[in-house]
């Protein structure tokens, strides 16, 4: 399989950034002497001829949206080219392996590059058993691949240019954004997180030289902002600080954002000032909820009071915080939802929370770690890659539908965030049978830096 048309790598959607899940395996394959064609379905189309010519097709499904797109692509591929080997790789490939193997031929998760390369080599020599560590097939079960890799600088030259992806916005300042990862996996085991059943509290550091080389090639391609997409950039705080220092020394005009847990922001508060000085533009943090009951159920590792503490720390440091939420769970009461809205308003976080966050509903995929603790989900039918659940209070499901519709309408018209927020508050108070209070001290939202696409965990 040395012809570039023999191997087809497909990304479906990676939250608006140029797919690292294509760039990294492209580098591995190139080093091993293979050429491959890469397609990003979020901005490119896949033609029938490319499907017919391919012998091996790998589809990246790191998240639920990508899973839905990838499933449709695989069914189309199978109808056009029944002989091609279809491999799904990524977090949601592993979680949905039972039914994805009805469409595809193999599943890879964890540190996927090495087993992906070994699978291609085995197919090339005609090995029909495909008993490869890290590769699950209908005839061979394997755990996610969690061996430490020899990382290679991702190969991005054949991917769509960065200009086609989400960009950084700070007021009237719009700039090209790049994306990289300094670590993989996560030290923590939040029960709703798709990383937990795969990495089980392990994480791997990507070597400093590889991260910097990836940043360098993206800056040379026009990026003046970098997103560190690690599940938690502060899992390895010394490593992260070394990287942002080097980034600032080499490219002092380049800003960056990263994701970090509430408790890490508290633990690392002394270092955060240097993150700011090195170009830290904003931080995404998975607050999820202001309810201690919900936070405990999700094993988030932080409390309501610690959220308030982290907000205060970040404001003193001068780095804006952008919370992500799981606004609807089976344990979130209507009073909890009203409290969430009140906290966002009172803490002046309206501009910091993308409206879609107020509509996020707990996703429980097959093999979720939530199933180990909350057996109720196991009795629910799996549909479209998730356990469908109903809230014990029907009003919450009605509110979820109403908020989702309102957020979708607002996005379609690029409505002002403050107006959208007020309308969500009105829906929530109406659902509770309460009069919407007059927000007398409510100040208009102050714009803060963000990306042009709403990214969330």
Per-chain topology:
Blueprint: E1 7-11, H1 20-31, E2 37-40, H2 48-53, E3 56-60, H3 64-80, E4 85-89, H4 91-95, H5 97-100, E5 106-108, H6 113-124, E6 135-136, E7 167-170, E8 173-180, E9 183-185, H7 196-199, E10 203-205, H8 208-220, E11 225-228, H9 237-250, E12 255-259, H10 262-267, H11 269-277, E13 280-288, H12 292-297, H13 304-317, E14 321-325, H14 334-346, H15 370-373, E15 382-383, E16 386-387, H16 394-412, H17 417-431, E17 450-451
Parallel strand pairs: 1-2, 1-3, 3-4, 4-5, 8-11, 11-12, 12-13, 13-14
Antiparallel strand pairs: 5-6, 7-8, 7-17, 9-10, 15-16
Helix pairs in contact: 1-6, 8-9, 14-17, 16-17
Explain briefly what this protein structure is.
This protein is an alpha/beta fold. It has helices spanning 20-31, 48-53, 64-80, 91-95, 97-100, 113-124, 196-199, 208-220, 237-250, 262-267, 269-277, 292-297, 304-317, 334-346, 370-373, 394-412, 417-431, and strands at 7-11, 37-40, 56-60, 85-89, 106-108, 135-136, 167-170, 173-180, 183-185, 203-205, 225-228, 255-259, 280-288, 321-325, 382-383, 386-387, 450-451. The protein is built from 17 helices and 17 strands.
Task: Please tell me about this protein's structure.
This protein is of the alpha/beta class and 457 residues long. It folds into 2 domains: 7-136, Cobalamin-binding domain (Rossmann fold); 166-451, pyruvate-formate lyase- activating enzyme. 38% of the residues lie in helices and 16% in strands. The chain is built from 17 helices and 17 strands. The strands form 4 sheets. A 7-stranded mixed β-sheet has the order 14-13-12-11-8-7-17. The protein has a 6-stranded mixed β-sheet with strand order 2-1-3-4-5-6, with helices on both faces. Strands 9-10 form a two-stranded antiparallel sheet. Strand 3 (56-60), helix 3 (64-80) and strand 4 form a beta-alpha-beta unit. Helix 8 packs parallel to helix 9 (237-250), helix 14 (334-346) runs antiparallel to helix 17 (417-431) and helix 16 packs antiparallel against helix 17 (417-431). The longest helix has 19 residues, at 394-412. It is globular. The protein starts with 6 loop residues before the first strand and ends in a 6-residue tail after the last strand. The model has no long low-confidence stretch (mean pLDDT 95).
